[in-house]
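Quick one: structure tokens for this chain, please?
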Amino acid sequence: FPKIKYPTSGTEFWQVPTGGDNPKPVDELHVVVLEKATCRVFYPKNEEPTEGALPTCMSADSIKPDPGSKIPQHETCEGCPNSVWGSGRDGQGQACKTRVQTFVLIDTPDNKGGGQLDTFPTRISLPPTALREFSHYVVLLAQARKALSFYTTRFGLTNAQSKGGKTFSKLDPKLGRKLSMPEMKYVKQVKETYASLMQFSRGQALATELATEEAVRPDVAVE
């Protein structure tokens, strides 16, 4: 799946692939969330991951380690000491990083209150700093009895600072437009077509992307 990388270092815009060498910067993404899954990955504090290096332990469902983990750290993610807040570097965050893998359809809004949905899902991996805001947004939609895939979601960004004074890009999700009935049917068709591939890809992505700079980026999330 094509991927849009989550902005780092307090950058307030997304880099959207255009098919060429130069991605298009946008300050707000309009998407339809097809699937979301909380995942975990663990590297020892004294280990500097290299690109392509498998993590010591990982989980594609954030419930228990995957069978392919090199050294499972615990029977369950909830009971693992590496998932405790304060177990990360410098006593901040979690040693076992949590991410939400989302698969979305990009929406291109028009000036008439509508838009045009992509034909193929895009993957966006939300870091620990975005989990609270995204989870809160999903809960609010559920309380309002609004299906996540029947509306577009606007992924905005704001600059924020952790308790340690580190600047990061904070996710600012907002409800977008309601899809038309033909769009809802189209979204359902796309979800069914790519369901098994999205489920497979969310775990495989952990073993590759988090062995890059995203895995060793200072954890600025607060409890």
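Residues 181-209 form the longest helix (29 residues).
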